[in-house]
Description:
about 70% helix
Amino acid sequence: MLILQIIVAGIAQGCVYGLIALGFVLIYKATETVNFAQGDLMMLGAFAGLAGMGFFGWPFWLAALAAIVAMALLGLLLERAIIRPVLGQPQFSIVMLTFGVGYVIRGAVTMVPGIGTDTHSLPVPYKGATLSLGPVTLGAEQLVVISATALLCGVLWLLFRFTRVGIAMQASSQNQLAAYYMGIPVQRLNGLVWALAAAVATVAGLLLAPVTFVHANMGFIGLKAFPAAIVGGFGSLPGAIVGGLIIGVVESLSGFYLPEGFKDVIPYAVVLLMLAIKPTGLFGDRARKKV
């Protein structure tokens, strides 16, 4: 039963990794850009939810919804004001730009007096609740993370499968030039993708905050979500979730059975193993280039 509880905890943590990795994959498929500010957007989204509850006195669900909408608008603004002007430049320049955006976000939060340098608890209504299934006791925070991730994945599947915007996003991710010639507004879709990625990151932050805490350095979890995207296949949306679950479960088991320190190393060991066995990831497509 202890092993089952460890696995459930790993699945819950893996869901958070998967949601952040989902943001990596969404932006990469749309613009072929790796957004290393994704973890910091998650952190800012968690602080936005905290501000809605603490400063405005809103209930958790209203504060969460407001944070998601605000971060989606911020993602749209970042794409239009910072990313779009440098598209077409060397990929290294764009990647370093996303690093800079992350540092600016983290620094701006840290400079807020009495908030940015402290650790905060997000007072969610299900905090501390448990559910007993026979001899197994599960925390409500873990169950909410798993349930919310499954629900969000279902919503995204419906979006990409049955809506014109979702189908246009898929077409643009396959071939932007062909999509543009077919009358699809590629630049507008790129902004929507950044907005969607920021919103998904906010959901991940709001789900993670009750399990851990809200603090300026919580965005570093993105460094573990990046291996999840690689393991699942960097161009696959389902692969991001599966990769996150794999990293979360392996990390949880290694933290219990292996000596201290292995827990932080094991995600990158899994990435090295995956790159040696299947460099494109579990769900990645093999790219061919005629020369």
